[in-house]
Structure formats: structure tokens, C-alpha cells
TrEMBL record:
<keyword id="KW-0249">Electron transport</keyword>
<dbReference type="InterPro" id="IPR036150">
    <property type="entry name" value="Cyt_b/b6_C_sf"/>
</dbReference>
<dbReference type="GO" id="GO:0006122">
    <property type="term" value="P:mitochondrial electron transport, ubiquinol to cytochrome c"/>
</dbReference>
<protein>
    <recommendedName>
        <fullName>Cytochrome b</fullName>
    </recommendedName>
</protein>
<keyword id="KW-0813">Transport</keyword>
<keyword id="KW-0479">Metal-binding</keyword>
<dbReference type="InterPro" id="IPR016174">
    <property type="entry name" value="Di-haem_cyt_TM"/>
</dbReference>
<feature type="transmembrane region" description="Helical">
    <location>
        <begin position="183"/>
        <end position="202"/>
    </location>
</feature>
<keyword id="KW-1133">Transmembrane helix</keyword>
<keyword id="KW-0349">Heme</keyword>
<dbReference type="Pfam" id="PF00032">
    <property type="entry name" value="Cytochrom_B_C"/>
</dbReference>
<dbReference type="InterPro" id="IPR048260">
    <property type="entry name" value="Cytochrome_b_C_euk/bac"/>
</dbReference>
<feature type="domain" description="Cytochrome b/b6 C-terminal region profile">
    <location>
        <begin position="74"/>
        <end position="243"/>
    </location>
</feature>
<keyword id="KW-0496">Mitochondrion</keyword>
<feature type="transmembrane region" description="Helical">
    <location>
        <begin position="88"/>
        <end position="110"/>
    </location>
</feature>
<keyword id="KW-0408">Iron</keyword>
<keyword id="KW-0999">Mitochondrion inner membrane</keyword>
Amino acid sequence: QMSLWGLTVITSLASALPIVGTSIVHWLWGAFSVDNPTLNRFYSFHYLFPFLLALLSLVHLAALHQYGSTNPLGIQAQTDLVDFYPYFYVKDLVLALALSALLAFLVGFYPEVLGHPDNNIPANPYSTPAHIVPEWYFLWVYAILRSIPNKLAGVALIGLVFLVLALLPYMHRPNCRGPQFRALHQALAWALVADFCLLTYLGHQPVEPPFVTLGQAATVAFFGLLGAMCVLAYADGWLAGAYRPNMSKQPLHNVLSA
């Protein structure tokens, strides 16, 4: 029941697009409502998507083999390197086995812990659940979406969220990648994690005071923290350039003695 209505609500967001919105929704559904064609399409997508992720993982490993990885300090160095095998291989293998054991434990003993109780009810398109929520890993997105009362503005804000996250590696270019020596950056990063957890919590709450106001404040804080991290990265680069000695105009012994 919850999966049916969650799919209906999420796919209906495309109807907010002008002119082509309704056509896109009907194309996603394969009908004029969520029906068997919709189930077949999304089942095929969920079946093929893990293979796409596996392909991207191979591309990542190939890039890691060619260009190497960063170090904890975020400093690029071609000395004192560590081989991928067996060091990182064993480290990643231990983490993969631990996550697999946790997944097997949840599936074997608590299969419903991350699900919604309404999914035990057969799907009924004529009965709308009182409180529709997405899966737990999309709750933070849902909280941002419903913080804007306008449907089109909410969809645009969700697009902006993923656009900002995609551009963040190019916008956040600090002089030193490692956060060990950047206390303010660490504080902003932990504040962003706390705001993410707050959005996840608010996404599961009903649309009523004070959760609506808290969601709007958390949404503003989310974008504000991302922007502050990017500005701080540029400020770090500017300060590093302002106080870096000009080696082209100073004798070598003066630079070394300084």
C-alpha cells in the first residue's frame, strides 16, 4: 500500500513541469495511473541498476589504479606510496564482510525494521494512507521537498539539491584537501551531518507545526552550510596565496632560513 502511493506521489512530481509534465508522468506510468506496466518498468530498472553500479565500480578501480588515491592529509605526493593489494584490498574486504553480515542479520531476524507497516496491506488505489512517506534513505529529500508550499518550486529545489551536490567537488577546491588542519571546516562538516540527520527525522513526521517550520529552517541551513564550505575553501586558497613567499624574487637561502 505504501509503495503504491509512494510511487504515485514521487512520479506525479513530474507533472509540475510546464507543458510536458503530464506527458512525462503518463510515460513513466505506461498508463493513466500506476498499473502493471509501471511495475514492469520499475522492476526492470531496479534489476539493471546494480549492474550499472558494478560497471561504475570497475571504472572507479581503473581510475584508482591509474591515478592513485589521496592520503589522509590531502597532500599529493609521489613518495612513500602504499600498494592497493594487499593493504587496501584487505581493508575494503573487512568492511564489505561487516556490511554483508549486518545485512544478513537484518534480513534473517528483523526483515521489517526498515520497512513501513502499511506495506503489509495489499495495494488499494481507492484508499489513500493518512501519512505518505518515502523510504528512509529519501526522507531528507522529502523534507526539503515539502518545505516549499509551491509544487513547481519544490521540484526545482530538489533539482538544485542534486545539482549542488554534483558540482560540490568543483566548487569546493581548498588549498589543502585534508580537514585535519581546518577546524572551521570540520565544524561546518559536522553541522551539515547534523542538519542531514534532522532533515531525515523531519521527513518522517506529519505535515504539521512545528515540523513544517523546522523543515524550512533545516533546508535553509543545508544550502547555507554548503555555501559556507565553498566560500571557506576559496578563503583558504586566498590566504595561502597571500602569505606564501614569492620564491622567484627571493634568494634560496632567504626562503630556507625563513
